[in-house]
UniProtKB/TrEMBL annotation:
Record's protein name: Gluconolactonase
Pfam families: SGL
Span of domain SMP-30/Gluconolactonase/LRE-like region: 178-300, 319-405
Keywords, ordered alphabetically: Signal
Endpoints of the signal sequence: 1-19
UniProt keyword Signal present: yes
Record has Signal as a keyword: yes
TM segment ranges: none
InterPro entries linked to this entry: 6-blade_b-propeller_TolB-like, Oryzine_lactonohydrolase, SGL
Length: 424
């Protein structure tokens, strides 16, 4: 009996081993130094041992890669507390540099934090906060001030920032020629917004006087839907912005969308607006490569909602099978020609929201609880993991080697060997 039981046990163990697919690289994940804050994933975990299962993200819970259940690979749990996950070891460790650091900086409300703009002359980081979804919309009564961090002062503090006149709900921002360009994403009658009627618009702010002006607030009389993010073409200075349709079901406007979702180019010198792209369901983040020859636009159609005028705020859906990719485009003729749309990267987590391109040409996108760092071929090199959602990122500092990450419930930053494009 004893021998039989031993044989049966051995047989069961052999069977269990044989069930695993050949080709697994062990360990799947390993410590790559810095006290466990940096881990390396071997061969992109291309083959995982059975049974593995990643729960499906919904609006209620975000399951990222580290939440995948892989009980047969104990090393997988090293992902849990890592701040940096290196996928390409040689380049990833070089980009992290000799002293990578992750710091959680500020606990903030459970609302979207966006539109980060670094003003190098002042060494200040400006950003916005969007109001939480309020239904019914008639009860909306929140003009929320923007925020600023004066990086010259210690300890760092998050302070309110109000322009004159005020701006409601910037959703994207970029520095250009000494000014903050904010793309605002809310529109209400004056009763809601402290006596100022505001419609979705591009604004320019002088960060010294705090005076704001409106550059664009309509397309031949139609209100824009959102103005989610904005980028400056490096040689022409034209402003490229995305216009998805989130504010209606998020309760930030009192009018349902009037235009198809699209992306545009605005020429500040002439006032002319040009359609550049209208095949993306929800165009969101937008950024140029340093030489201006490639444009990246994120598609966040996996997160959508009703634009029916009869259906109000709070009607959002999220679906992992929906579109949540970055697309790349060729840019020619001094920023006037966009062509050759191609799929660049499918977000490993949630949706690719804001994005920036580093001086090295790396594409950094805010996805779920972290930031993915991609090379110009779309290969994931490193992921920064946060314990809060990240909607957008911004480089700061003299060397532009600090990256701030903003989202619901948290603002954090990393110091590393990746540098931002020089603001101009
Ligand atoms: C994966 O995990 C989720 C959550 O625990 C569970 O509902 C689902 O049935 C699992 N699916 C598989 C195929 O294991
Ligand atoms: C995913 O894992 C992180 C790290 O362990 C944890 O904080 C988070 O709660 C997990 N998410 C879900 C939805 O379980
Ligand atoms: C991650 O950190 C938590 C809290 O400190 C700890 O309980 C857990 O064991 C850690 N996980 C791993 C894999 O080290
Ligand atoms: C930082 O990155 C540059 C290339 O961008 C590289 O030459 C340098 O060796 C890296 N520094 C470290 C400490 O890895
Ligand atoms: C707007 O009005 C509300 C309600 O009267 C007030 O609490 C808030 O401080 C005002 N905000 C600004 C920026 O004036
Ligand atoms: C502009 O706002 C800042 C707050 O960030 C304030 O310190 C400064 O005095 C303001 N400038 C003017 C001219 O009001
Ligand atoms: C691009 O356009 C801008 C604005 O019209 C102009 O100042 C600049 O000289 C142009 N650059 C090139 C390379 O054509
Ligand atoms: C906004 O105000 C105008 C002028 O008072 C009014 O005609 C319009 O109905 C209002 N719109 C909404 C959506 O409240
Ligand atoms: C998710 O998307 C698929 C494909 O578009 C669709 O068939 C399905 O109904 C969607 N599910 C939800 C919950 O929206
Ligand atoms: C994230 O971690 C920091 C400590 O590093 C903690 O103070 C903060 O409350 C955490 N935030 C969330 C949303 O869990």
């Amino acid at each position: 009996m004893k021998i039989l039981a031993f044989v049966a046990l051995t047989f069961a163990a052999v069977v269990a081993v044989q069930q695993q697919p050949p080709g697994i690289s062990q360990p799947i994940v390993e410590d790559c130094g810095f006290g466990g804050s940096v881990v390396c994933v071997n061969r992109y975990a291309a083959v995982l041992p059975y049974h593995f299962n990643r729960s499906i993200t919904s609006l209620a819970a975000d399951y990222d890669f580290r939440n995948t259940s892989v009980p047969s690979a104990p090393s997988f749990s090293l992902l849990e507390n890592a701040s940096f996950v290196v996928f390409d070891r040689a380049r990833g460790l070089q980009y992290l540099g000799s002293n990578p650091a992750y710091e959680f900086m500020f606990a903030v409300g459970d609302n979207v934090h966006e539109a980060p703009v670094y003003v190098p002359e002042l060494n200040k980081l400006f950003m916005s906060q969007l109001p939480p979804v309020v239904a019914p919309i008639s009860t909306m009564s929140q003009y929320l001030p923007q925020l600023v961090i004066d990086l010259n002062r210690q300890p760092l503090a998050l302070e309110e920032y109000i322009t004159e006149p005020p701006i409601f709900a910037p959703n994207g921002g970029v520095y250009h020629d000494g000014r903050i360009i904010w793309a605002s994403s809310g529109g209400f009658n004056s009763s809601v917004l402290n006596g100022t009627e505001q419609r979705i618009a591009l604004h320019a702010v002088d960060p010294t006087t705090n005076v704001s002006t409106v550059l664009l607030n309509n397309y031949f009389g139609f209100y824009f839907n959102n103005m989610d993010d904005v980028a400056v073409h490096p040689t022409s200075g034209d402003l490229f912005f995305t216009d998805p349709d989130y504010p209606w079901f998020n309760g930030r406007v009192d009018t349902a969308p009037q235009l198809p979702t699209a992306s545009y180019r605005f020429n500040p010198a002439t006032g002319a607006t040009f359609l550049v792209e209208d095949t993306i369901d929800q165009p969101n983040g937008i950024a140029f490569s340093p030489d201006g020859s490639t444009l990246y636009i994120t598609e966040t159609g996996a997160l959508t909602g009703s634009i029916d005028p009869a259906v109000g705020p709070g009607t959002k859906h999220y679906n992992t099978t929906g579109r949540r990719s970055i697309y790349a485009f060729d840019v020619a003729e001094n920023g006037t020609k966009i062509s050759n749309k191609r799929a660049f990267y499918l977000a490993q987590d949630y949706i690719p929201d804001g994005l920036k391109v580093s001086r090295e040409g790396l594409v950094l996108t805010a996805t779920g609880h972290g930031v993915d760092v991609l090379d110009p071929t779309g290969q994931l090199v490193v992921r920064v993991q946060t314990n809060h959602s990240v909607q957008n990122v911004q480089f700061t500092g003299e060397r532009l080697d600090t990256l701030w990450m903003l989202g619901n419930k948290g603002i954090s930053r990393v110091h590393w060997n990746i540098t931002g494009q020089v603001p101009r």
